[in-house]
Amino acid sequence: MNLESFKAMYGILGYYSISDRIFKAIDTSGEGLISLEEYLCYNDVLSFGSQTEKTLFTFNIIDLNRRGKVNFREFKEFWFDFIELCSQALNLHVQTHVEDENLEFIFGEIS
Fold first, then answer.
1. 28 CB-near residues (< 8 Å, 6+ apart)
2. What are the angstrom distances between the C-alpha of 104 and each of 6, 18, 20, 40, 64?
3. pLDDT exceeding 70 applies to what percent of the chain?
4. pLDDT, tens digit, for every residue of 75-84?
């Protein structure tokens, strides 16, 4: 399954970079396609995975470079992408301009 098939399957009609992030997290081989095995592993983690496995999957959505760590810019981009997707899905206008200091504080607390 390629990215466009993935978006169609989940009803993602526009371009949302969050769907690209999810796709890349499922595509563990990095070949730009999701194999049946990768898809089944993804579904298994979502359905039956431990909290640690689910947390790792979520982290991989943020860590696009697969370095095992995330800098502030990547963290900020992820949250803005997430807010954009949610606001579109709910047909709301949500202000994505948040003070960097607030996000940096949250990032610092997490890191």
1. 38, 41
2. 33, 21, 24, 36, 19
3. 71
4. 888 888 887 7
pTM for the structure as a whole: 0.68
C-alpha pair distances (Å), 57 with each of 21, 38, 60, 98, 105: 11, 12, 5, 26, 24
Amino acid at 99: E
> What pLDDT was estimated at residue 10?
58
CATH class of 3-110: mainly alpha
Give the sign of the dihedral formed by CA 14, CA 20, CA 25, CA 29: positive
